[in-house]
Design goal:
This protein has helices at about 5-30, 45-55, 60-65, 70-85, 105-130, 135-155, and strands spanning about 35, 40, 85-90, 95-105. α2 (about 45-55) packs across α4 (about 70-85) and α3 (about 60-65) packs across α4 (about 70-85). The chain has two domains: about 1-30; about 35-130, Winged helix-like DNA-binding domain superfamily/Winged helix DNA-binding domain (Arc Repressor Mutant, subunit A, Orthogonal Bundle), CATH 1.10.10.10. The chain is mostly helical and about 160 residues long. It is built from six helices and four strands; from the N terminus they run αββαααββαα. It comes from Methanobacterium spitsbergense. Keywords: DNA-binding, Transcription, Transcription regulation. This is MarR family transcriptional regulator.
Length: about 160
């Protein structure tokens, strides 16, 4: 079999697999998670809570950059969490326009519940990955990075 034929077949298999995984992740993002007290939060809301709790981003601008989504999309989630009592908004010292986010007691409670769920999921995921050589996992990470770069070129319309 010709080398270009193998590359085409492998590339096609990778693309189909990524599409299937993406669809499944999209389904997960639509599922709400019960955090007790008859309250449910969506993964997008939990990502914001996690970001604030771990100081990955405590402003709309920082989270927009971190998650790779618009400030408007982040603002919508932030406002929902504020209205539900999970977040506090404070003006940043010296900059009346910028809002600094922090968790309320209710927000911290949700974070700790979510953190336990994540730990459980990670343990299960590690179980699935057990037996795969570290070198192969590093190669996979490198390949996924290349795929992300390739997709970024389409998003920037460089290949169309």
């Amino acid at each position: 079999m010709e080398n270009t034929q193998i590359n085409h077949e492998v590339t096609f298999k990778i693309m189909i697999l990524i599409l299937r995984i993406t669809k499944k992740f999209n389904e997960l993002e639509k599922m709400s998670i019960d955090i007790g007290s008859d309250e449910k939060l969506y993964p997008s809301e939990l990502h914001v809570i996690d970001s604030v709790a771990n100081n990955y981003g405590n402003s709309v601008t920082e989270m927009s950059k971190k998650f790779g989504i618009t400030k408007g999309a982040v603002s919508q989630v932030v406002n929902k969490l504020f209205d539900k009592g999970f977040l506090k908004k404070d003006k940043k010292n010296g900059n009346a326009k910028e809002i600094v986010l922090s968790l309320t007691e209710k927000g911290w409670k949700a974070f700790y519940i979510m953190d336990e769920v994540h730990k459980q999921m990670e343990e299960e995921f590690f179980g699935y990955m057990e037996g795969i050589e570290e070198e192969k996992l590093e190669s996979f990470i490198e390949i996924m990075g290349k795929i992300e770069e390739f997709i970024d070129t389409f998003l920037k319309h460089e290949l169309l």
